[in-house]
């Protein structure tokens, strides 16, 4: 992940990061997807074996999306946020992988 953070995203983890929290990042807006400097939509550098015409993208996000304990499923509000960004970026048909550095979330 260090390669992706440093080379592909150009993001440096905050000194507030701990081993327990995983990488934390300073962001411009506390609401996910509100400021384009806080997220990136990029093709996966290591895509899975997919049929031709299917593009595997990852949405990299500095903010943390809200999750439901104990499994870490996205809340209804967080799913709505993901659908809104997927719509605005025309990421349909939708299978978006959101990487929050602490855990993967698949919508």
What's the layout of helices and strands?
Blueprint: H1 2-9, E1 39-43, E2 57-61, E3 67-68, E4 73-74, H2 76-88, E5 97-99, E6 104-106
Parallel strand pairs: 2-5
Antiparallel strand pairs: 1-2, 3-4, 5-6
Q: Could you name the key traits of this structure?
A:
single chain, 107 residues, alpha+beta, 4-stranded mixed sheet, two-stranded antiparallel ribbon, 20% helix, globular, disordered C terminus
Structure write-up:
The structure is a single chain. With about 110 residues, this protein is α+β, with helices and mostly antiparallel strands. The chain has one domain (about 15-105). It is built from two helices and six strands; from the N terminus they run αββββαββ. The protein has helices at about 1-10, 75-90, and strands spanning about 40-45, 55-60, 65-70, 75, 95-100, 105. The strands form two sheets. It has a four-stranded mixed sheet with strand order 1-2-5-6, with no helix packed on it. It has a two-stranded antiparallel sheet with strand order 3-4. The longest helix is centred in the last third of the chain and has 13 residues, at about 75-90. It is globular. The protein starts with a helix and ends with a strand. The relative contact order is 0.16.
């Amino acid at each position: 992940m260090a390669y992706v953070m440093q080379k592909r995203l150009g993001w440096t983890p905050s000194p507030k990061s701990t081993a327990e929290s995983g990488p934390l990042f300073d962001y411009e807006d506390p609401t996910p997807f509100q400021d384009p400097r806080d997220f990136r939509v990029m093709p996966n550098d290591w895509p899975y074996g997919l049929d031709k015409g299917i593009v595997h993208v990852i949405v990299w996000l500095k903010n943390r999306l809200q999750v439901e304990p104990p499994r870490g499923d996205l809340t209804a509000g967080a799913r709505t946020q993901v659908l809104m960004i997927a719509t605005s970026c025309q990421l349909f048909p939708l299978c978006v992988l959101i990487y929050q550095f602490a855990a993967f979330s698949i919508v």
